[in-house]
Amino acid sequence: MSAPAPRGTSKRGWASLIGGLATGAAVWALWIGVAARLGWGGAGAAVSGLVAAAAVAAWVRIADL
What we know:
The two termini are 19 Å apart. The longest helix has 24 residues. This protein is mainly α. The chain has one domain. The model has no long low-confidence stretch (mean pLDDT 85). It is 69% helix and 0% strand.
C-alpha cells in the first residue's frame, strides 16, 4: 500500500487516466458516427471530433480528483 499524499495535494490514480482516455475515445467515436449520419465528412469532422474528445477527456481526468 502506498503512503498517502501530503496534505494540500491530490493524487490522481490510474482509474482517472484510463477513464479519461476511454471517455475521450467514446466521444470521438460518437462524434464520427453522428457526423457520418448527418452527411458531414472529411478531415474537418475528424479534427473537430478529436478536439471535442480531448476536451472531454481532459475534463474527466481533471475533475476526477
